[in-house]
């Protein structure tokens, strides 16, 4: 047993001896920054937030002020559907022109089709779980509390590696189970 350990220690010592102090910069002399074309690329392209193209997971879905409206939408008592690019509600069908993350949620600028032309509206969306406070900034900060409708679609969460696994391993609906 001792004879097998000695050759392993010799190999480890040889590897470590190749790591001399001459390869490490002292703290008073940091290494020069990388100046390759790849290292000089911006992390995010200049321009509006990339959130508008992906849709934050927190607000994407179908929302209603009354949970009964999810199952039985009727005129003004209909849910609001939010996607990364659309804001659709009864009498208000809008494109999301811009969206910015704030400390408490997301501020969006909507371009809505209206009689006589396009109309710009601003909203703020703040979610906690399946509850959203939707504030109409240009309507005297009127706020509506909304609940996510059951079965509402959600934006994918790329930060959660288990999300795809959970979908694949989900339980089959009762009509399929035998």
Could you characterize the architecture of this molecule?
By secondary structure, the protein is of the alpha+beta class. It contains four helices and eight strands. It has helices at residues 2-17, 51-54, 68-71, 162-168, and strands at residues 61-64, 80-82, 86-89, 92-102, 105-114, 117-128, 131-136, 142-148. The protein has an eight-stranded antiparallel barrel with strand order 1-2-3-4-5-6-7-8. The N and C termini lie far apart (59 Å). Mean pLDDT is 74; it is low at 45-55 and 168-178.
- Give the topology string: H per helix, E per strand: HHEHEEEEEEEH
Assembly category: single chain
Give the tally of β-strands: 8
Radius of gyration (Å): 27 Å
The parts where pLDDT drops under 50 for at least 5 residues are: 45-55, 168-178
By helix and strand content, what is the structural category? Answer: alpha+beta
Strand content: 25-35%
Question: Which descriptors apply to this entry?
Answer:
single chain, 178 residues, alpha+beta, 8-stranded antiparallel beta barrel, 4 helices, disordered C terminus
Helix-strand layout with pairing:
Elements: H1 2-17, H2 51-54, E1 61-64, H3 68-71, E2 80-82, E3 86-89, E4 92-102, E5 105-114, E6 117-128, E7 131-136, E8 142-148, H4 162-168
Antiparallel strand pairs: 1-2, 1-8, 2-3, 3-4, 4-5, 5-6, 6-7, 7-8
Brief description of this entry?
The protein contains four helices and eight strands; from the N terminus they run H-H-E-H-E-E-E-E-E-E-E-H.
């Amino acid at each position: 047993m001792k004879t097998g350990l000695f050759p392993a220690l010799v190999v480890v010592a040889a590897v470590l001896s190749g790591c001399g102090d001459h390869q490490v910069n002292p703290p008073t002399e940091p290494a020069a920054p990388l100046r390759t074309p790849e290292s000089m690329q911006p992390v995010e392209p200049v321009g509006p937030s990339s959130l508008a193209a992906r849709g934050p997971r927190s607000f994407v879905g179908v929302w209603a002020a009354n949970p009964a409206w999810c199952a039985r939408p009727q005129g003004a008592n209909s849910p609001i559907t939010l996607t990364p690019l659309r804001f659709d509600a009864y009498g208000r069908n809008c494109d999301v022109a811009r969206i910015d993350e704030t400390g408490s949620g997301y501020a969006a600028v909507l371009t809505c089709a209206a009689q006589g032309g396009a109309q710009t509206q601003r909203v703020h969306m703040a979610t906690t779980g399946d509850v959203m406070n939707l504030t109409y900034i240009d309507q005297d900060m009127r706020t509506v509390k909304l609940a996510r409708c059951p079965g509402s679609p959600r934006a994918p969460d790329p930060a959660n590696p288990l999300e795809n696994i959970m979908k694949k391993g989900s339980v089959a609906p009762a009509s399929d189970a035998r």
